[in-house]
Specification:
The chain is built from two helices and six strands. By secondary structure, it is α+β, with helices and mostly antiparallel strands. The chain has two domains: 111 residues, no CATH class; 36 residues. A six-stranded mixed beta sheet has the order 2-1-6-5-4-3, with helices on one face. A hairpin with a 2-residue loop joins β5 and β6. The chain binds zinc ion.
């Protein structure tokens, strides 16, 4: 580890192809400190889902745009672009990822609640409406096990009935 800082991985989009690159991000510095300006973002102001940064005039940063994407609270992924078409392409792909995740986070719990209302059970259980084959199998297994319990109870009771 050098005291210069950390080389951070970024994927550069150029002519439709992604190339792994890295940029120098000195420890303790913000993206603003290294010459970037936040142009746009989605998510909370503090907990950003994705942010588009542009290189400030006179900055030594290697690319014109840097996109930060946070798929969860613990990580940031970086994508870079140096020409407008690549920036628009990269930014719209990242926004697509954020929109899909938001949709799943909203639709998933709502769908589970609706399913419970309609079936009277959670997704990991079955009934005759949502899985007739599995429900029939469970009913048969239950009946067989009930029959075995009744049979063993009768068998245990036999000696007493025998006197
Ligand atoms: Zn069901």
């Amino acid at each position: 580890m050098s005291n210069q800082g950390t080389m951070t991985e970024a994927w550069l989009l150029q002519d439709g192809a992604w190339t792994p690159k890295a940029f120098d991000w000195p420890d303790g510095k913000t993206l603003q400190d290294i010459g970037l300006l936040r142009l746009d973002h989605v998510g909370d102001d503090c907990i950003v889902d994705a942010a588009l940064h542009g290189r400030r005039e006179g900055s030594q940063f290697p690319w014109r745009w840097l996109i930060e994407y946070c798929p969860d609270a613990s990580q940031s992924l970086f994508f870079a672009a140096d020409d407008p078409p690549s920036m628009v392409e990269a930014w719209s792909r990242v926004l697509g990822c954020v929109a899909q995740r938001d949709a799943l986070e909203t639709i998933g719990p709502a769908a589970r609640k609706l399913f419970r209302v309609q079936h009277g059970h959670d997704l990991d259980a079955v009934c005759h409406d949502c899985d007739p084959v599995e429900a029939e199998q469970i009913a048969r297994t239950r009946a067989a096990s009930q029959a075995r319990r009744v049979a063993s109870f009768c068998a245990a009771g036999e000696p007493k009935a025998d006197k």
